[in-house]
Amino acid sequence: MGEKQRAGVDIQRYAFFRFMLPEEEIQKQQEFLNRCLSGTPRGRIIGQEYNFYLLNIGQHQVVVQYVCYHVGFPRRPFWL
Predict the structure, then answer these.
(1) How far apart are CA 71 and CA 57, in angstroms?
(2) Does residue 16 fall inside a structural domain?
(3) Radius of gyration of the chain (CA)
(4) Displacement of CA 7 from its chain's centroid (Å)
(5) SS3 state of residue 23
(6) In this structure, is residue 78 part of a structural domain?
(7) Counting CB atoms within 10 angstroms of each CB, which of 7, 37, 73, 80 has the fewest?
(8) Is residue 80 part of a domain?
């Protein structure tokens, strides 16, 4: 997770991967994003990245997709 400061806005970068993760980890990632968007100070999604890469497992080829959300805050939340 990266962070930047731009024009008085605190920007956080969160990448969410669903490949080969236990269901509990996926649920934790979703809850964290929901907290960023509904907590105090309220964050806003200011950008999204969609990407994929090919993973070769033996003779099989698997496509791994992920989405990365860029969340901006008016000020840095104390819980980050």
Answers:
(1) 34
(2) yes
(3) 15
(4) 22
(5) helix
(6) no
(7) 7
(8) no
Cα(80)–Cα(69) distance, rounded to whole angstroms? Answer: 16
- Residue 47, in any domain of the structure: yes
Whether this prediction's pTM lies above 0.85 is answered by no
Mind listing the pLDDT tens digit for each residue in 61-80?
888 887 888 888 888 888 87
Query: Residue 47's domain is classified under what CATH number?
Result: 3.30.110
Confidence band (pLDDT; 50, 70, 90) for 7?
low
Handedness of CA 56, 58, 60, 66 (dihedral sign): negative
The one-letter amino acid at 72: G
State in Å, rounded, how far the first CA of the chain is from the last one. Answer: 11
Structure tokens at 32: 């964290």
